[in-house]
Amino acid sequence: MRAATDAAEALTVEAIVENRLYGLALKDAALKLIAMHDAAPRIVRYTADMKRWLLTQSILAFHFQRVTSPSHPGLTAANLKALIADSGIASKNTAFAHLAEMRNYGLLVDVHERADKRVRPLRISETAETLIREWFDEHLKSLDTLDGGTRSLRSSADRRLLWYAQPRMSESLFHDPNWASPSQSVDTFVRTASGSNILHDLMSRLPPEKELETRMSIGPLRIGEFSRRYAISRTHARRLFERAQVLEICGWDASGDRGDFWLAAELIRDYRHWQAVKFAAIDEAFEWACSHVPEPTNEQREG
To answer: What is the mean pLDDT of residues 193-203?
Structure first.
């Protein structure tokens, strides 16, 4: 294995938030997340709210841990149930339904390696790995923007880094209340279907170069635009915005949904800190992976 001293020092949450380029990096990341949704809306919805995000990342972690360590328990419904048993993130039935949906959409496939038909081992499909790799590498690019790093190049040079980093990142965020239980302003969005996508969309409209004001205008906005783009009912979208308006974290200049839409500085700061928690976990896991992934074999180098 590579020496641990070879790893670069990961960025802290505080360092990320205070970085003068963070607004730009965060906008680029938000735009990429939205683009991924637009390219594959039915698939990307599996990470479009906090419950689905945590379940999906836990499922991916099971798969990659099995890839890097064949003796590790594989992905089964029973193993996923055991993982979430004490977490409170989802019920057993919700977790099982999530597995079934991912399998129906081709994100999970059966592993035919056991005689016991009562157990159905699963693994992620090539489509799923391509998507998580795209998501991971885009975050590495954003981190590189902050400090001129080489994370993206290193990831491209050794595809195994994702396999080692993702489970560590997933476990870190799974148990971090700053991510899994964010402030009320952020939680209002991410606890509802497609709410994470809507929040990323709103934040992507902010001019990253402007200093924060009490209210930041992002121009005209119509609820129907979000219901169509994110395949949710207009009623669902309206209720989400109404809850946010009650908290006075966003709203329209004029009555109804007329005039320019504004975001409160409180929501923006809370969002930036929440996302910085994720960026810091990704950075720490990636640098850890760089120092723990085995040296590639000659076959891997040639491949």
So the answer is: 94
Angle among Cα 29, 170, 127 to the nearest 5 degrees reads: 65
> What is the SS3 string spanning the chain?
CCCHHHCCCCCCHHHHHHCCCHHHHHHHHHHHHHHHHHHCHHHHHHHCCHHHHHHHHHHHHHHHHHHHCCCCCCECHHHHHHHHCCCCCCCHHHHHHHHHHHHHCCCEEECCCCCCCCCCCEEECHHHHHHHHHHHHHHHHHHHHHHCCCHHHHHHHCCHHHHHHHHHHHHHHHCCHHHHCCCHHHHHHHCCCCHHHHHHHHHHCCCCCCCCCCEEEEEECCHHHHHHHCCCCHHHHHHHHHHHHHCCCEEECCCCCCCEEEEEHHHHHHHHHHHHHHHHHHHHHHHHHHHHCCCCCHHHHHC
- Residue 119: the pLDDT is 67
> Given this model, what pLDDT does residue 302 score?
47
Across the range 267-281, mean pLDDT stands at 98
In the predicted structure, residue 303 carries a pLDDT above the cut 70:
no
Q: How far is residue 83 from each of residues 4, 61, 243, 255, 266, measured CA to CA in Å?
A: 29, 11, 32, 47, 34
Nearest 5°: CA angle at 161, between 177 and 110? 80
Token reading at 110 = 């059966």
Rounded (5°) CA angle 247-249-252: 105
280 versus 116: which is more confidently predicted?
280
Q: Are 195 and 207 in contact (CB under 8 A)?
A: no
Residues in the chain: 303
What mean pLDDT value characterizes the chain?
90
